[in-house]
Amino acid sequence: MLKKIEQIKNDFYKALETACGTQADLSKLKADFIGKKGAVADILKNMKEASAENIREIGQHVNRLKSEIEAVIDSKIREAETALINEKLKKERIDISLRDSLTDRGLCDAGYHPVTLIQREVEDVFTSMGFEILDGPHIEDDYHNFVALNIPEHHPARDMQDTFWFSDLQHLLRTHTSPIQVRGMETHRPPFKFVGPGKVFRNEATDASHEMVFHQIEGMMVDRNVTVSHLIYFMKTLLSEIFGRTVEVRLRPGFFPFVEPGFELDIKCLICGGKGCPVCKQQGWVELLPCGMVHPNVLKCSGIDTEKYNGFAFGLGLDRLVMMRYGIDDIRHLHGGDLRFIRQFKAY
Ligand code: DAH
User: Which of 240, 288, 259, 275 is nearest to 121 (CA)?
Assistant: First the structure.
């Protein structure tokens, strides 16, 4: 009997060696040896032949063999499962360092566009001062782009911005980010302050300082007792953060139907230092930041009580900001698609 047990053990290890190691194979092996109809069960059936004193010893041997086979097979099954999972993971692998690996292989030379970079910086400055960031659609309606901003139909101010109209003459590509003010007032109750960055579209000829598609960031603060000093404080903080130095500014009166009083905040041209160049149109100053105190009609139109609240607003040109910062003298470089130009910003 004991010999037979030893034989089964040997047979098992031999069979294990030749088995191909799949889960199904191993389970069959397990059944062949320690299953209900397996080799070990056969021995137990023939126990009658053994003498009484041998029964205990044989029983112990059989149980030990059973546990051994079970342990060996189970660990092989686990190995097979792990191998299977590893193979699956290898196939489904996602390279989270894709950009770097593509760059290593010379396949991708990506970087952020300088307008994106400056937009994020401006957003950071404003969020650090408690402003929310809002978004708005590129395709606007007449109401949000004009009417709610105190520019009714037939108002001459509509001619200030050459508009891409859709054929229904109700919809248009937004000419400025100011409709984000209107949408912000629709969803917020005062006090609030937010900025809204994005693309804007003008149907006009291009030159060194004009593009048909460019970028603005709109800003608005509405609270009790807001003054021009608040406006100047926020604008000065922004510009000194962005340019990393004190920038010379001047305020001129400016007309925009949605503010009263309205201003043009100019900065001394950082490219020519004020001497005159194509960017500043030989003026030495660059119009950078139109702004003003929100016109009561605009607040009223969006249901804000003008007895209690007032505010300021501004619309900053992001492309012009990039040009000033990096000394770029023609706005058309920015979106002209020339990779030699754009690659210079890869490292930022
Ligand atoms: N939306 C104006 C434009 O694109 C810029 C502007 C002027 C925005 C004054 C404002 C503002 O918020 O107060 O020409």
Answer: 240
